[in-house]
Amino acid sequence: MIYLLEIYLTAGHLMTPKQFFASTLLLFSILAAPTFADVRLPNVISSHMVLQQEKPVHIWGWAEPGEQVEVSFAGQTKKTKADKSGKWLVALGPLKANKTPATMSITGKNTIKLDDLLVGEVWVCSGQSNMEWSMTQTEQGKDEIPKADHPQIRLYNVVGHIKKPEPQEDAPGTWQACTPESVKKFSGVGYYFGKNLQAKLDVPIGLIGSNWGGTQIQPWTPKVGLEQVDSLKADAKNGGIYNGMIHPLAPYSFRGIIWYQGESNCVSGDTDIYTDRTIAMVKGWESVFQQDDLSFYFVQIAPFPYSAKFKNRNKGINAESLPRFWDAQTACLDAIPDCGMVVVTDITGNVNDIHPRNKRDVGARLARWAMAKNYGDSSMVYSGPKYKTMSAKGNQAILEFDYSGSGLKSLDGKPLSQFMIAGNDKKFVEATAKVVGNTVVVEAAGVDKPSAVRFGWEETVIGNLGNKEGLPAIPFRTDSW
């Protein structure tokens, strides 16, 4: 570089001003070009991080092509060589949970020491604004933030909103211990989810936040996911947010994803294909993170008057757009392995606010799914009633449900509400409903032969069916009209 600079300065007087300016730009681009003589790491591999227990742990970075790199941690030492592009990766064997801070060494021509590392459970918290909504914006934040001193919970937030045409190798972010200061700007849903897990499991919890308000699901989806869903193969080139905000995290090892998104897709009238879009995103993330067993727990979007608020943006939106979108989200439960859904109809508060402020109960309900499905708590009731079957007996429709818990009930103690029933004419009318044993019996005057029932098929009027554990029933329809 010094030799190059000497030649440049010597020849400078022979150039025209235009040539001198152009050559100056070229020289500085050369001087600024990255070199891989020293081992480097992505931001997500750093001090204070939590490593996922019981799974292979991926550690990666860059070095000079062909340079040998050695990673030592928890009694393991793994060696590899950087490839022709300077990239390297090692996989440590599965680790046991460890609450005692430990050190990792990464050695090439230089040595990097990462301190204060814990081993436990790691989850990615992603989506649009309702996941991005920070602790300072939550209903309970004023009381919770001063108490959020949890050294066994670590937070990593992808900083900013990043959209790129090509997958990026790194993104800004820093691992931090959870303190009243560091938690302020972190996802409220993510924090409450992690707090519940840490209290029950007594192991370190790592939470990785990557969110962007107002976004649809498409740009979060990598090409490899779209290619695995027939209906979306033609779209296998959108993924700008994935490129900037998810790909830089891969292949970090983690247990699963909590996801709160869908409002923007509902507004756009994307109902019919949203289930497939969700399948594509999950399959894509599993591929790029090299994990085919990721748990995926998401929040069904809250009641909101979409047809009134967004009619100027989408003239096709109507009073059934939200219920049909809920239907598409519910279909994910059967379409995606290791999938779970949280219903929030009963804790929305102000239905005219698209951002419900009670994130504490949302995070706690997501944690129920993880405790039951990932951590073996067989006593945990993790879902509200989900429609199973309907049979007709005279003028009555008899409904059976999964996830009834210890029994069906009215959540507010009032008669069951928001049930509709139709006969052979396919015209729905308001119905009466009551719990009979483990079923709900629905009927209405004038409907002699029930053919279909709907529950909660409204944008803002909330039904009160739930289970005795206090979890609301999933809005549903028995028809496919």
Itemize the secondary structure elements and their pairings.
Blueprint: H1 2-11, H2 17-32, E1 50-52, E2 57-62, E3 68-73, E4 76-81, E5 87-92, E6 98-107, E7 111-127, H3 129-132, H4 141-144, E8 150-157, E9 175-178, H5 188-201, E10 205-211, H6 223-226, H7 240-246, E11 256-260, H8 263-267, H9 271-288, E12 295-299, H10 306-309, H11 321-335, E13 339-342, H12 359-373, E14 386-393, E15 396-402, E16 408-410, E17 419-422, E18 428-430, E19 432-436, E20 439-443, E21 452-455, E22 465-467, E23 476-477
Parallel strand pairs: 1-7, 7-10, 7-11, 8-10, 11-12, 12-13
Antiparallel strand pairs: 2-5, 3-4, 3-6, 6-7, 8-9, 14-15, 15-20, 16-22, 17-18, 17-21, 19-20, 21-23
Helix pairs in contact: 5-12, 9-11
Summing up helix and strand content along with how strands pair, one would put the structural category as alpha/beta
Tertiary shape: elongated
Instruction: Name the helicity range.
Output: 10-25%
Q: How many extended strands? A: 23
- Count of helix runs: 12
Give the mean pLDDT.
93
Low-confidence stretches: 1-11, 25-36
Let me know the largest β-sheet. 11 strands, mixed
Q: How much of the sequence is in beta strands?
A: 25-35%
| Quaternary organisation | single chain
Measured between the Cα atoms of the first and last residue, the distance is 72 Å
Please give the radius of gyration in angstroms.
26 Å
